[in-house]
Specification:
The chain is mainly beta. The protein is 6% helix and 28% strand. It has 2 helices and 15 strands. The strands form 3 sheets. Strands 5, 6, 7, 9, 10, 12 and 13 form a 7-stranded antiparallel sheet that branches. 43% of the residues are buried.
Length: 291
């Protein structure tokens, strides 16, 4: 029996957000990406342990500009539409990158077992410095908008040094944090405290660097493909009697999002996997390990 629900394109974008369920044993998405109809009978429902790949809904780099020029000449510029994100503290300038993830609403009683923040580093020693580093990450201190944020108005203007956790950099590969499950659980529990993350290189962090990552505006990020944009990987245990159908995806696309993916139809924001004791091999999860 076929059961379907029809929505306007506007409603589909706002409420459905292109849910994709990826069983670990198939390697392919099993939901129809349609403008006005989602066929729920074609979507296998997962219970118990579920793996989520959550795409960022906002990101932007802020830049002071060359340190050789007094007064931060780029401090009022906005770079929210660029396809790349940068982190630097060297003679070329000071750059930080802000990344935000809109998290789904989980059924009450769900637990976050593992969580990793990852970005894709597309270079290899591109600044003449080793990639054998860990780049500090801290929490954004206040709300921000990707199409308005600048170096001058950023929430974390004074950030420097080490934050206690960071991205273990890999060359031409995903680069990620160690397990931050407790932190991510707190953001699921209290969404109003989720302002996102700041990736930076402090003035006292050693040799100057400039490393680049792909943003949500990279061409590979489309309506049906999360591409190489920043991701939050979350392993969740759902309470008995609940399935992925009980996970509300509506919060995963912020109203201020700078995401402008190519194509038409609902926007894929979350991929799911289940039926395995570990992360899907195809997702290439780093767990904060250098490789």
């Amino acid at each position: 029996m076929r059961t379907s629900y029809s929505f306007s394109l506007r409603s589909a974008l706002a409420l459905l957000l292109g849910l994709a369920l990826l069983p670990a044993f198939t390697g392919c998405d099993l939901i129809e990406q349609l403008e006005e109809e989602i066929d729920e009978t074609d979507v296998p429902l997962a219970t118990g342990t579920v793996y989520m790949w959550i795409g960022a809904d906002m990101d932007a780099t802020v830049s002071c500009g060359p340190l050789t020029v007094p007064g931060c000449p780029e401090a009022d510029n906005n770079y929210g539409t660029q396809g790349g994100l940068s982190v630097s503290f060297n003679g070329v300038g000071i750059k930080r990158s802000y990344v935000h993830f809109g998290l789904p609403t989980l059924p009450e009683g769900s637990t976050v077992d593992e969580a990793y923040f990852e970005m894709y580093h597309g270079g290899q020693n591109e600044d003449g410095q080793s990639d054998d580093i860990t780049i500090p990450v801290t929490l954004a201190g206040a709300p921000w908008k990707p199409l308005e944020i600048t170096y001058n108005n950023q929430p974390n203007r004074s950030t420097s040094g080490s934050s206690g956790f960071g991205l273990t950099l890999n060359s031409m590969d995903w680069s990620g944090t160690a397990d931050i499950a407790n932190l991510v659980q707190s953001h699921f529990d209290s969404p109003a405290t989720n302002y996102g993350y700041v990736v930076y290189w402090g003035s006292n962090a050693g040799n100057g660097i400039e490393k680049g990552f792909y943003s949500i505006n990279d061409y590979r990020r489309t309506r049906t493909d999360l591409g190489l944009s920043p991701r939050m990987l979350v392993k969740v245990t759902l309470p008995p009697g609940y399935t992925t159908a009980d996970i509300d995806l509506a919060p995963t696309l912020n109203a201020d999002s700078d995401l402008n993916p190519r194509g038409s139809g609902p926007i894929l924001m979350v991929r799911f996997a289940s039926g395995t004791s570990d992360w899907p091999d195809a997702w290439n999860v780093t767990r904060g390990i250098r490789r």
